[in-house]
Amino acid sequence: MEIQQLYYYMELCKQKNFTEAGYACNMTQGALSKQIRKLENELGITLIRRNTRKFELSKEGEIFLSYAKKMTGTYEEMLKNVQKNQEIKIGCMPVLAPYHFARLVADFRKEYPDIKLVIDERIASDIQENSDRYDFLILRENMMEDQKKFRFSPLYDDKLCAVLYEKHPLYGRDRLQLKELKDDVFIFPERGSGSYEVFYKSCEKAGFEPKIAFEFPQANTIMSFVSEGVGVTITFSTVYREAKCAGVKMIPLEDELHSVISLFYRKNKPLDYAKKQFLNYVREHLYT
């Protein structure tokens, strides 16, 4: 029996659903089911009643759950005492300010003062090129080139919107399709940032290649150029609310385009106590 199997079992009991628990554990429903079967075979008992429509533990399953909680609690206490002053290196793209990630980091440091977080903010392409340097990566899911090597936990899911200047012909609209902006000039984030690639691919999906006049690393600069009528842009609704300025308007897109920011970590690299605590803390306090 492996300690990780206990965590799988506890997550399943929490979710009461193999699909949801598998997603939380970053594995398929079938893979999770095999782990539970393996536990049952080793113990020689049935943990979960499978002949009912609703999720239900057997009597033995209830007893085993209580012991699993005690065993993992003791395991984590042991790790906490022997693995003090741990350091976690996080590579993240420069997009987290609007999502108030700093608040989570501050709260985590208060709860785990012995764990040091080192956050290296770089454009997405640099983070991927140097991924071996980090314990965790914070990137948009569509930017991760080799997802098979990583597990991930979603942090934020945000929709794309159009941002237009006051004199634009479509400024008065409540909603629009991205293809309606195919003849406009765009102001984009800098290439390699992650957002650039999301926006460009969204335009391609809408049937056109955007005519990009300028690229800037800061959302505030992009908004200022839009407000002066230099061009239009597309961005994430959360980013817009943080960076909006006078003379611009956010218009929702009927295309329903969105992008998920996730926390990635390598499958073949075991997580020590500090990294597990950070991962669990993020899962419990984030996903909007």
UniProtKB/TrEMBL annotation:
SUPFAM superfamilies, per database record: Periplasmic binding protein-like II (SSF53850), Winged helix' DNA-binding domain (SSF46785)
Keywords of the record: DNA-binding, Transcription, Transcription regulation
Keyword Transcription regulation attached: yes
Coiled-coil positions: none
Keyword DNA-binding: yes
Domain HTH lysR-type: 1-58
GO cellular component annotations of the record: cytosol
GO MF entries: DNA binding; DNA-binding transcription factor activity
Pfam families: HTH_1, LysR_substrate
InterPro entries for the chain: HTH-type_LysR_regulators, LysR_HTH_N, LysR_subst-bd, WH-like_DNA-bd_sf, WH_DNA-bd_sf
PANTHER family: HTH-TYPE TRANSCRIPTIONAL REGULATOR YBHD, NITROGEN ASSIMILATION TRANSCRIPTIONAL ACTIVATOR-RELATED
Family: Belongs to the LysR transcriptional regulatory family.
Protein name: Morphology and auto-aggregation control protein
Organism: Anaerostipes hadrus
